Amino acid sequence: MRLDRAASIEDLRLRARRRIPRFAFDLVDGGAESERNLRRNSEAFEEVQLTPRYMVDVSKIDTGTEIFGQSFAAPFGMAPIGMLNAFWPGADLALARLCAAEDIPYVASSAASTTLEALAEAAQSNGWFQLYVSSDESVTEGLILRAKAAGYEVMMVTADVPAAGKRDRDIRNQLSVPFRITPEVLAGLVANPVWSLATLRHGKPNIANYADLLQAATSYADVQKTLITPGFTWEALERLRDRWKGKLVVKGILHPDDAVRCAEMGCDGIVVSNHGGRQVAFGPPTIEALPAIAKALSGRIKIILDSGIRRGADIVRAKALGADFTLAGRALAFGVGAGGEAGARRAFEILSLELVRTLGQVGTPSFSEVGPSLLSRQP
Ligand SMILES: Cc1cc2nc3c(=O)[nH]c(=O)nc-3n(C[C@H](O)[C@H](O)[C@H](O)COP(=O)(O)O)c2cc1C
């Protein structure tokens, strides 16, 4: 299928699946354990009904949104994704450039396959930085200093990875650190020559911000210890709040009490997220967790929502249920997998045109006016 014939994010996903070796596709497409959470994230969006309202002048639709003192052209940004160059070579920079061009936020993952400095430059003033707190304090401090020097003003600390998620597809595909070429991997490389040649040209993807530290790693446990810590606590968040003078956002909140505690601690926002269903299989889909969180926060701090966004209507659904802003992870990543930089643009175009069309259909020409009155059933 040609890129311009891709009608939906799912079309882009299927195109990406045909171009990328199985082990690399599954790395992004997969979820934790039974993948129940991954499936439920999108299903739960579909269950939220909006009642169309007609005879309103919708000749001009305004998707502009302000958050953290900055105006953006649309109410969604790119979620932080680690090691994305393994999915498609050059994916990180393609997406950062897309976000700068389309004037939406780009969240640079601390586990990205491109350095935070290069991503800050590509995203221009639209870059936010996502931090994983390391079990080594000096690693965390180093990242904070670099993020500040690179000009990031928004830092998003991820709370929902006390341990790496168990992803059955990656185990079945025998993904290992250090990377080993198994017969299955070799077969995937041969069957996908465009991907393989592009990867050869770009060089082996790595976790660029920690490249030196990880060179010494001989096991996945070593890598995990550098990247994340099971010891990230409320006290550590409090220290981080004192340490980081810019906007601080906590990513991975699902419980209203945790959301309120973030607000009390002086955080500027939260991301209601289940990591796109990659951490656990048993939790709630984010769109179901959102109403109780929005009620408990009652506007005190900003609410961003991610996990499962595949349609423009999902962004409107999230706003109707109390989110101020959204992030898309796989939706934009599938675009890059389907067609590099042009594919990323196509994914953005699909989501934003669907968003504009939905706002017209529900008779709400300004995104900022979307509210609970559009819901067919109140939560
Ligand atoms: C392959 C992959 C890698 C990810 N890496 C990170 C990461 O490094 N840091 C982080 O906070 N979240 C990470 N996430 C979670 C995303 O930021 C986001 O929460 C999730 O993708 C949203 O769900 P969606 O893909 O259904 O939109 C990752 C997600 C995927 C799919």
Description:
Residues 1-379 form the FMN hydroxy acid dehydrogenase domain. Its EC number is 1.-.-.-. With 379 residues, this protein is α/β, with parallel strands linked by helices. The chain is built from 16 helices and 10 strands. It has one domain: TIM Barrel (Alpha-Beta Barrel). Helices cover 46% and strands 11% of the residues. The protein is globular, with a radius of gyration of 20 Å. The mean pLDDT is 95. The structure holds flavin mononucleotide. Flavin mononucleotide (FMN) binds at residues 27-28, 41, 79-82, 109, 111, 130, 158, 251, 273, 275-276, 278, 306-309, 328-331.
Structural topology:
Blueprint: H1 9-19, H2 22-29, H3 36-47, E1 65-67, E2 70-72, E3 76-78, H4 91-102, E4 106-108, H5 116-123, E5 127-131, H6 137-149, E6 154-158, H7 168-172, H8 183-191, H9 193-202, H10 211-215, H11 220-227, H12 234-243, E7 247-253, H13 256-264, E8 269-272, H14 286-297, E9 302-305, H15 312-320, E10 325-328, H16 330-361
Parallel strand pairs: 3-10, 4-5, 5-6, 6-7, 7-8, 8-9, 9-10
Antiparallel strand pairs: 1-2
Helix pairs in contact: 1-16, 4-5, 4-16, 13-14, 15-16
Strand order of the largest sheet: 3-10-9-8-7-6-5-4
Helix content: 40-55%
Distance linking N and C termini: 39 Å
Helix-strand topology string? HHHEEEHEHEHEHHHHHHEHEHEHEH
What is the CATH architecture term?
A: Alpha-Beta Barrel
Strand residues, percent: 5-15%
Name the CATH superfamily assignment: Aldolase class I
Q: Count helical runs.
A: 16
CATH structural class: Alpha Beta
Globally, the shape reads globular
Sheet with most strands: 8 strands, parallel
In the predicted model, the low-confidence regions spanning at least 5 consecutive residues are none
Kindly report the CATH topology.
Answer: TIM Barrel
Assign the structural class, choosing from mainly alpha, mainly beta, alpha/beta, alpha+beta, or little secondary structure: alpha/beta
**Ligands:** flavin mononucleotide
Please give the domain count: 1
The total of beta strands comes to 10
Radius of gyration: 20 Å
**What would the average pLDDT be, to the nearest integer?**
95
Pfam families: FMN_dh
Family: Belongs to the FMN-dependent alpha-hydroxy acid dehydrogenase family.
GO molecular function: oxidoreductase activity
Keywords: Flavoprotein, FMN, Oxidoreductase
